[in-house]
Write a structure and sequence with these properties.
Layout lengths: L1 H27 L9 E7 L2 E5 L15 E4 L2 E8 L6 E3 L6 E4 L4 E4 L5 E4 L5 E2 L5 E2 L5 E3 L8 E6 L4 E6 L6 E5 L2 E3 L7 E4 L2 E3 L8 E3 L8 E4 L1 E3 L5 H35 L1
Antiparallel strand pairs: 1-4, 2-3, 5-20, 6-19, 7-8, 7-11, 9-10, 12-13, 13-14, 15-18, 16-17
Helix pairs in contact: 1-2
């Protein structure tokens, strides 16, 4: 049993190391635009069925509880928590945030599509809407160099004005992508996600349609990391790690005592 306790405690320590890594990543991204916090899910490992529940004690009686010895825990998944982050007003006309569900679509260098909650829009040399890394936002929106102001409506409509012209000119329509299971998206860095079989296929809609969020111009979405919650989780993880370490020490002492008796 002491050997089993050693191995079970070791799995507990490894699990808490993964939790601490997740917490550190969350805290490192407190001010990352559109960042979604990581959460760790655990599961228990297989059990030795020394006496299965419901097994026969006698011809007429069965054991109500049994004897099952577990082998510890493991990380079954680290997933993103896609709750809304706080909206920070920037008053920059090309900064946008999505209030509600959905992602902006961007085209990567390899021609693939990625998705982001980071609405820090820039314009490239051709006037196209791009991300901070220069990836084109889809559908493509182009603003001419003579534009003096840009307006982005809640429904994603983009228009601009020029000197001497009072009527705004349409520049296109932003869309947002919805997923059946956003937690199944693959995080690839640079505030980007790509779809997987787990997330399902993206469904592009106009903002405000089909349960999607609306666009807020002049705002950016801050990360949804709760500092107080992360610090509490850090303390819990540290104490759990220390407790498992103590179990290993105790198991070791028990084994030493058994060896001395022999």
């Amino acid at each position: 049993m002491t050997l089993k306790a050693l191995y079970a405690a070791a799995t507990g320590m490894e699990a808490q190391e993964a939790r601490i890594s997740s917490i550190s990543n969350n805290l490192a991204n407190i001010n990352t635009t559109g960042f979604k916090s990581d959460h760790v899910a655990f599961e228990d490992l297989m059990y030795d069925q020394i006496q299965a529940p419901g097994s026969k004690n006698t011809a007429n009686t069965t054991t109500p509880i049994g004897v099952q010895v577990g082998h510890g825990t493991r990380v079954v998944g680290i997933y993103k928590h896609f709750t809304q982050g706080e909206l920070i007003q920037t008053n920059r006309e090309l900064d946008i945030s999505i209030e509600g569900n959905g992602f902006l679509q961007v085209t990567l260098d390899n021609g693939g599509t990625a998705y982001t909650r980071d609405g820090s829009i820039r314009v490239d040399s051709s006037g196209n809407f791009v991300t901070n890394h220069g990836y084109t936002i889809e559908p493509q929106i182009t603003i001419p160099p003579e534009a003096t102001s840009v307006s982005i409506g809640k429904d994603g409509t983009v228009s601009y004005t020029t000197d001497g012209v009072t009527t705004a000119t349409s520049a296109g329509q932003l869309q947002v992508a919805l997923f059946q299971n956003p937690t199944g998206l693959k995080a690839i860095g640079q505030n980007l996600f790509t779809e997987t079989d787990a997330s399902g296929t993206a469904s592009a809609v106009n903002p405000g349609e089909s349960g999607s969020g609306t666009i807020a111009q002049g705002f950016l979405e801050n990360s949804n990391v709760n500092v107080a919650e992360e610090l509490i989780n850090m303390i819990i993880a540290q104490r759990s790690y220390e407790a498992n370490s103590k179990v290993m020490q105790t198991s070791n002492e028990m084994m030493r005592s058994s060896t001395n008796v022999i």
